[in-house]
Amino acid sequence: MTFCELCGDKTGGRYLCERHTVALAKRLAELPTLYAEVAECLVPRRADWGDIVATKAAAGPRSPLDEDVLDTVNMARAAEVVHLWRVDVQRVRWPRHGAPPPGQLAADCRWLGMELEWIVAHYPGTGDLAREVGGLEQQARTIVGDPAPRRQRLGTCVAVTAEGVVCGAVISRLPGDTRLRCRWCGYCYETPQDWALLVHHQPAESA
Fold first, then answer.
1. pLDDT of residue 1
2. Closest residue by Cα to residue 176 from 148, 141, 199, 200
3. Do residues 79 and 104 make contact, with C-beta atoms less than 8 angstroms apart?
4. With a threshold of 0.70, does the pTM exceed it?
């Protein structure tokens, strides 16, 4: 039985559970629009798009842009990352085909979205793909607002392993999650009793 590479839930042989498959599809669909918003936030305007303030000058006042952010969170960078994933997925699925030519972010996101059912069923890099697309989304949202929720550290896993010892691995969840699986030992916390035991057995400083 295969487990989801993001949350550890059983998937019936797929690399992602249904919840994370849907989330990845949604992110791929929204990423081009999100990075278009990033461009608007990072390019200062006076009257129109033709009046662009220089970002690197020998003298004068400091640019209103954070140039480090501009270098790492932009449409070109997102397009490069997503295109490399498209190239690799196509290499695995159709090894005799040549690599696709460089394309726009929207086109590559759309292609990956159309191939998502095959990807989650057959592509070994699905977990890394989902994590990197999620990272691109999170970086963009730090610029445009409405950042994605961060994982909450709950403490350490209190399940007893097959060796008869307490697991002790750090476990965390996203806000609102009512079920989680320890990524180390595989124990699933989902009932009120599970959560009560988890809280009860945490050290005082972690509870």
1. 45
2. 148
3. yes
4. no
